[in-house]
Amino acid sequence: STRPEIGVFVGICTHLGCSPKYVETANFESTQQGGFFCPCHGSKFDFAGRVGRGYPAPDNLPVPPHRFVSDTVVVIGDEGGTA
Ligand code: FES
User: Fold this and answer.
1) 75 pairs with which residues across the strands?
2) Predicted structure pTM score
């Protein structure tokens, strides 16, 4: 994400395409933080969208092109470049 305090991810598991669920608190990767849990085959992603070791998902959650137009509005699919 372009703002580290706000995560912007594609909410599709990189294993087989299920939808990981937000988990506020859990023991992810030996931390006490939550993250995103895929209910289909158990992949776990931390709040930065990184998949933990040993889970079936091969990659982290992708960060889509995006830009913040204000503190409360984000545009997905547009990075605001000159292209
Ligand atoms: Fe997410 Fe398999 S689809 S772990």
Assistant:
1) 67
2) 0.83
Ligand 1 centroid from CA 70, angstroms:
34
Calculate how far, in angstroms, residue 33's C-alpha sits from the geometric centre of ligand 1. Answer: 20
User: 23 CB less than 6 Å from ligand 1?
Assistant: no
Q: Whose CA is nearest to atom 4 of ligand 1?
A: 41
Stretches in the chain below the pLDDT threshold 50: 83
Given this model, what pLDDT does residue 28 score?
62
- Chain-centroid distance of CA 69 in Å reads 20
**What pLDDT is stored for residue 83 in this prediction?**
46
